[in-house]
Amino acid sequence: MDTKSVSSSIYTGRFAPSPTGPLHMGSLVAAMASYLDAKAHDGLWLLRIEDLDFDRNVKGAAQEILKSLQRCGMKNDGEVSWQSQRQHLYEAAMQQLDTHVYSCACSRKEIADSRLRMGEAASQVYPGTCRNGIAAGKAPRAWRLRLPEIPHEIIQFNDRYCGLQTQDITAEVGDFVLKRADGFWAYQLAVVVDDAAQGITHIVRGADLIDSTARQIFLQKLLGLATPAYLHVPVVLNEYGEKLSKQTGALAFDRGDNDLLREALIPAADFLELKLEGNASSIAAFWDKAIIAWRNKLHVMPI
Ligand code: GLU
């Protein structure tokens, strides 16, 4: 894979929550892992609020998340950035992608119907209907990235936790959306633009996003951007085996009392299989011990 190396820059990590609700145990685990990896490498840890989906944003949630992180003792370096204020950067990236991008007039139903006709009901892959232009009388809705067909685009990367990953994005994903039919920028484009603009060298996040990583690496290649190192930590599941989220009824762990340490930090560290030496009598002591415990695990997740 032809990617630029970022290893010479200072370690810069980030946590990038979507403000769809308060932090819960699942998002705390992702925040903690990214924070510990940054601090274990004496690096920077940035915060970015991914508030591009204006229909899913919950009023006040971003401030709640920031307050909870602060109460937990996770201090960010530099200003918090907000994707809603960075849309000119996504527009510029789209311009740069130029002929790799095409407009698509398909509705969800048309895509599903066309897959059925092709006998591919189960596939999520876009059938390519608008690749060579939009049918007469139809209006553009979304903007898609054209993936190479001959040969297919196959992306490989070494995840620091999950090991070697390979994805044929032409076959497994297809031409994916960069700007959605509702007018909002797609996560895949915004995250690539921001991680590069903010000089992120290491991405640590939940394994539910590992499937997106090949798409992001492909976009980095097209835009001439460096590829960060990736580490995807296991996601916290509820009793039904579903990822914790607002939709699956995850509870906010920060209920305003000061007993956060026992209530949330220790179970999150346990989930990450951190072996803390002795009792942490304060939040500061917890982080000191957790950073040492994370450093002790680095041999199994080298940079
Ligand atoms: N905003 C995404 C989320 O809350 C995370 C994006 C990322 O870490 O790349 O799930």
Q: Count of helices?
A: 9
Instruction: State the name of the first-level CATH class of the largest domain.
Output: Alpha Beta
Q: Tell me, rounded to a whole number, the average pLDDT.
A: 91
What summary fits the major beta sheet?
3 strands, parallel
Strand count: 10
What ligands are attached or bound here? glutamic acid
- CATH topology-level name of the largest domain: Rossmann fold
Termini distance? 17 Å
Secondary-structure content class: alpha/beta
The largest beta-sheet arranges its strands as 1-2-3
Tell me what portion of residues adopts beta-strand conformation: 5-15%
CATH homology-level superfamily of the largest domain: HUPs
CATH-level-2 architecture of the largest domain: 3-Layer(aba) Sandwich
Rough outline: globular
Q: What's the structural domain tally?
A: 2
Radius of gyration over all CA atoms, rounded: 20 Å
- Unreliable stretches: 1-7
Q: What is the share of helical residues?
A: 25-40%
Order of helices and strands: EHEHEHEHEEEHEHEHEHH
Give a summary of the structure in a few sentences.
The chain is an alpha/beta fold and 303 residues long.
Characteristic key phrases:
single chain; 303 residues; alpha/beta; Rossmann fold; Glutamyl-tRNA Synthetase, domain 3; 2 domains; three-stranded parallel sheet; three-stranded antiparallel sheet; 10 strands; 34% helix; disordered N terminus; binds glutamic acid
